[in-house]
Amino acid sequence: MSANDIAAVVVSYQSASTIEECLTRLLDADGVTEVRVVDNGSCDDTMAIVQRRALTDERLRFVANLDNPGFAVACNQGAAESSAPWLAFVNPDLLVEQDTLVRLRDAAAGLGGALVGAQLHDEAGNADAAARRHDPDFVAMLQSRAARNLAIARDEARQVQPVPAISGALMLLPRDLFEKIGGFDVGYRLHAEDLDFCRRVRAAGAQVACVNTVDVLHWRGVSSRSNPLFVEWHKHRGLWRYFRKFDAAKHALPVRMLVGVMIAVRLLLALLGRVSKP
Description:
alpha/beta; five-stranded mixed beta sheet; four-stranded mixed beta sheet; 38% helix
């Protein structure tokens, strides 16, 4: 095994429409010596596609969970089932180019072993605002709607832009850093675990950065479309967990209660919006 080898971990759920192309790209990518798919109880053709691809390439192995224990749990499973010195967490609706992961690895190494992501765009070429983000400040959100926008603009002057947080759709870091912080927090089921992960990476003394010169196609939210109410519930539950874990102790009880009400109202509005859609 080389010190530059990369293990790609893909967490799938109802991903039949994109998983084959995702795996084809990963298996063709430079530097990838292991691909681990962890499926969270898909009932479409996802696992049939994964099994078929696994028969053609020994680098691909899979874990088929009988239920859906959550994204964080599955990421940790995939990491545990691999051994390469570098870990890349790749959404099943994300399509890397041949040199994507090695360019990210080289950028991470150049920062002393950092957590890095890439510029992301959808099928129409629209940039994904989650590629570069601030930490959420829920108390500031009570006072200003502008604080709810976590997006950080791309700094055109910087090829590698340090930021507080990147998107969980594509993350690459050294395995020893992943193990140092204990992997993903399994208390999150879906959403906000990437914000938590980035914050703990920084607390461990490592950098988080977006490699602005690496651009990757992300068919955003393909898996989420199968159960949008489930997604909204766990998204807001994750935000509340994040607040309690990192920031609640800094504020008085009335402020904590107001944050809880704000998150609950946002959840209600999101659920109503989902239900009203045809």
